[in-house]
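Course assignment 3, question 2. Fill in each field.
Student: A.L.
Task: Predict the tertiary structure for the chain below.
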Amino acid sequence: MSSCLAQEVHLARRHEEILSQRSELLQQMETYLRDKKTKKTWQTQAADAAHKRNAALLNDIEAAEKRLQERTYLLPHPDTVKLETLYWASIKESLPKWEEFLLGRAEVPIGFKKMKATKQSINYPEEDSQK
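Answer field:
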């Protein structure tokens, strides 16, 4: 009988240890699941924020690209700008020579001849090939 009683006490203690371990493991599992859920929530929020940020950046890039394309249509080619600048510089340089003529007060400036559009001064490709 004493061996049965000792075995009963031993089993009762072992049962208490197992219940204690079970309770501890359940708490650890709850903590782990709560942390995992919190981490997942944080990751979801971070992914949503990143998605919104990426969408905003993409919209900004597309808007900037559109503005640049519109500006390229507004700005002439650099060669055109250079030619235009040279043209207006030439006009400003020769304007004093022509000013009196344009006002009707003088003859054509020296160095400029009146050009007559005649058939003799214009070479047409058809005429050259017929000769």
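Instructor remarks: The first helix runs from residue 2 to 74. Residues 110 and 120 are 24 Å apart (CA to CA).
Grade: pending
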